[in-house]
Design goal:
Helices cover about 45% and strands about 15% of the residues. It is of the alpha/beta class. The longest helix is centred in the middle third of the chain and has 24 residues, at about 160-185. The termini are far apart.
Length: about 270
């Protein structure tokens, strides 16, 4: 039986993870943007990967359930990657929460049904998930509230800033992965998250050209790495967490930010809080 790697979000980081972890497997790519999806599929097929594509809306349970069911028809689902997301300058707060928070929770839930024993899930969070401290009761709600109740949580409905929505959503990714590690673990599978810093993708270039550009440049200047990461560098870490070498790692988050959060905590950068 073929082993299947599902990658949701076919942009820079998602495509890089598919290249790195999809060798010798069937890669099922999903995205809501036809142009992005087609380009990623074509590039992988030209490199001799076995690839299938599905248009998918991560805010729709029915769409994700269809994707999960399709994946099981291709073989054993050994890896599920959620690289879908919107940045603060791409959408209003409600849409960011719908895609980056609610959509991620739906993916954990729908793919828990189909992941193979020994398989692994990974959500691409962000260093932003380490920037905004939240009260303990809010963190508990983000981790354990029933998925369909998340959009109606009062403190989420009160968010009016896209930046705040993004930070809370990415914090929720980390917390939700830790919570899902228990239920996925009951199936013999694992879930982790990664929190990249500034990665050289079209999304990052969009941010640099926005009004937030000076903030991003300050992040790079204050970090020890003083550079962006190429997507393939993030994919190296992702593939490790998805593979057998990391079998003892479950419910963890790996911060891959070149030292931005360290600089923030050292007082070299202002904290959003």
């Amino acid at each position: 039986m073929s082993e299947v790697v599902v990658v949701i979000g076919a942009g820079g980081i998602g495509a890089a993870i598919a290249r790195r972890h999809g060798i010798g497997k069937t890669v099922l790519l999903a995205d809501c943007n036809p142009a992005t999806l087609d380009a990623a599929v074509e590039a992988l097929r030209e490199a001799s990967y076995v690839v299938e594509a599905r248009s998918t809306d991560v805010t729709s349970r029915a769409s994700l359930r269809s994707l999960a069911d399709h994946a099981t028809g291709l073989g054993a689902v050994v890896a599920v990657v959620n690289a879908a997301g919107l940045s603060p300058n791409m959408a209003p707060p409600g849409r960011i929460l719908a895609v980056d928070l609610y959509g991620a929770a739906l993916i954990f839930e729908e793919f828990e049904r189909v992941v193979a024993a020994g398989g692994a899930g990974l959500v691409v969070s962000s260093m932003a998930g380490h920037m905004l401290p939240l009260p303990a009761e809010q963190e508990k709600a983000l981790a354990y509230a029933p998925t369909d109740d998340l959009p109606s949580l009062p403190f989420l409905r009160a968010i009016t800033s896209s930046g705040d929505a993004y930070m809370v959503a990415k914090r929720a990714n980390i917390l939700r992965a830790q919570a899902a590690a228990m239920t996925w673990g009951d199936r013999g599978a694992r879930v982790n998250s990664i929190s990249p810093g500034i990665v050289s993708t079209p999304l990052a270039q969009h941010e640099f050209k926005s009004e937030s550009g000076p903030i991003y440049r300050a992040f790079l200047d204050a970090s020890s790495a003083k550079r962006m990461a190429p997507p393939d560098e993030i994919a190296l870490a992702a593939s490790y967490l998805l593979g057998p070498e990391s079998a003892f790692i479950n419910g963890s988050d790996l911060l891959i930010d070149g030292g931005v959060i360290a600089a923030m905590r050292a007082g070299r950068l202002p904290s959003p809080a």
